[in-house]
Amino acid sequence: MTNHARAGQPAAPEDLVDVPQLVRAYYTTHPDPGDPGQRVAFGTSGHRGSSLGAAFNEDHIAATAQAICDYRSANGIDGPLFLGKDTHALSEPAWATAVEVFAANEVTLLVDGDERYTPTPAVSHAILAYNSVPGRRRADGVVVTPSHNPPWDGGFKYNPPDGGPAGSEITGAIQEAANRYLERGLHGVRRVHLTTARSAGTTSTYDFLGAYVDDLPSVIDVEAIRSAGVSIGADPLGGASVDYWAAIAERHGLDLTVVNPLVDPTWRFMTLDWDGRIRMDCSSPYAMASLIGRLAEGAEFAVATGNDADADRHGIVTPDGGLMNPNHYLAVAIDYLFRHRADWPGSAAVGKTLVSSSMIDRVAASLGRPLLEVPVGFKWFVPGLVDSSVGFGGEESAGASFLRRDGRVWTTDKDGIIACLLAAEIIAVTGSTPSEHYKRLTETFGDPVYARVDAPASREQKAALGKLSPDQVTATELAGEPITAKLTSAPGNDAAIGGLKVVTKSGWFAARPSGTEDVYKIYAESFDGTDHLARIQAEARAVVDDVLASA
User: Fold this and answer.
1) Residue ranges of the domains in the chain?
2) In the predicted model, is pLDDT for residue 424 greater than 70?
């Protein structure tokens, strides 16, 4: 991937989305159900798209909300539905459309009482808290968010009663039903006016912020952070966590500054990401350039943190190390948590996605903890977090959650807020930054290099890659080392990975088709340096190209 010439530079007026045009298109453009790009399509985090491309419009949300109502009815889910939204321009109109449909279907709906934006982890926390009381009807939730995606995108994701991202068996049913409604011109979609919906007896309010913030000491050692006086600079990146960070500082007496409290649907205060687009990716050094620069100019904070628009991702910036690679921070968090959570179950596993760093494997082995390696997607960690058989689940894309201090479930969706607060706890308890901790890990386990690159692939080739079997890979060596494993299913749960992973003693690569672009992604890592990594990447392309040539 070639970086844009202005990557990391402040956004200019010509980079900004036209918000009135975006909202107008939401209401006036109608999708063509015969165009695959204009149908409802649930990925790992819900349906996403832009109204400007007829991929996220009022029809999509009305149809999807009705499909969710149908799913709830068919599956006996008749408790409240917790509805949250982030700060994207399309989130507010989509939220309103959803309220109108849910109210017309007499769904018991709980929305934020102060009209606040609602982070994804606060919705997951609310679902689990409600369902933890015996005898209650099952609750679920929806978050209107495209996560870290650019300002012109909208998103709509469903969280079932387990509080986590819906699995493909659920999203597939909702997607199919929603597209049938689109094909019928929304015939069968029940809906009332927003004023009627807001005043309906089934619509009520919930204090998402209070419930979440007040409960934080059960998952983070807030007292240690306060007593040590750890100074925190929290940047919500214009996202839904903005009020939450201010409340965390006030209610828990922390030395915490909300670095940028502004909310603007154009995100005009952002620096451009690697491709020259505005993207609220708190794991990107380009999107986080302002915060990195602020800490580099002087040790204003002991740690600075960032979140994406719905706060399900984390970014950790230290004075001594800059922005931490997400894989590095996951390894540090795992090492710290399993050494400092005495009340966690002794058999609780370390959860990682198969494209996360093998440093995590080595840390887990040193801790004597089982490793649960699963396909890409946080949904795979949900059952283990619910029953506490997984202590920590993390993705290489800077998403993670972990158990409460007493070993019970906290959230079953990614929680960027607790991941950021954990960095402050690590400093408070150990006196070392997460960057310093990672350096010590490399001294023990080696210093891996990790990268991801994209390569072109047709729709047919992507389909072939997604259906690979290990015996289609004839290579016996990778970058001069014997291949020890050829995986098309995840070791942790035997679920199909939708691609291929090849492993040797000192490195590995994984190739997966993109769900949104005509490319496949190659993730690779080496414990033998950058030259070895380059060999792995080159040979990975050759291995995959041999397979795709026959597609």
Assistant:
1) 17-211, 449-549
2) yes
Q: Using CA atoms, how far apart are residues 73 and 118, in angstroms rounded to an integer? A: 25
CA distances from 204 to 99, 174, 199, 340 (A): 11, 25, 8, 40
The residue with tokens 């009135």 is 20
* Residues 10-21: b if buried by 16+ CB within 10 A, e if exposed: ebeeebbbeeee
- Vertex 219 angle, CA 217 and 225, to 5°: 55
Active site residue ranges: 147
- Concatenated DSSP letters of 2-15: PPPTTTTSBP-GGG
**Per-residue confidence at 548, pLDDT binned at 50, 70, 90?**
confident
Is residue 31 within 8 Å of residue 57, measured between CB atoms? yes
Q: What is the pLDDT of residue 454?
A: 83
Q: What is the pLDDT of residues 202-227, one digit of tens each?
A: 999 999 999 999 999 999 999 999 99
For 285-324, what is each residue's pLDDT tens digit?
A: 999 999 999 887 777 899 999 999 999 999 999 999 899 9
C-alpha separations of 37 from 31, 47, 53, 97, 173 in Å = 9, 11, 8, 21, 18
545 Cβ neighbours under 8 A, 6+ residues apart:
none
> 336: which residues sit within 8 A by CB, 6+ positions away?
422, 426, 429, 430, 437
Helix (H, G, I), strand (E, B) or coil at 325: coil
Tokens matching residue 371 = 């490793």
Write out pLDDT tens, residues 174-198.
999 999 999 999 999 999 999 999 9
Between CA 221 and CA 224 the distance in angstroms is 6
The answer to whether the CB of 469 falls within 8 A of the CB of 456 is no
CB burial class (10 A; 0-12, 13-18, 19+) of residue 361?
Answer: middle
Fold of the CATH domain 449-549: TATA-Binding Protein (3.30.310)
Question: What do you get for the CA distance between the two ends of the chain, in Å?
Answer: 25
pLDDT at 474: 85
The fold adopted by the segment(s) 17-211 is: Alpha-D-Glucose-1,6-Bisphosphate; Chain A, domain 3 (3.40.120)
Residues 6+ apart with CB under 8 A from 370: 347, 349, 350, 364
Residue 143 φ then ψ, to 5° = -120, 125
Given this model, what pLDDT does residue 515 score?
A: 67
For the chain, the 3-state helix, strand and coil shares in percent, each to the nearest 5, are: 40, 20, 40
- Tell me how far apart the 2 most distant CA atoms of the chain are, in Å: 68
What is the average per-residue pLDDT within 119-140? 97
pLDDT in tens, 236-266: 999 999 999 999 999 999 999 999 999 999 9
Answer whether 59's CB lies under 8 Å from 186's CB: yes
pLDDT at res. 490: 95
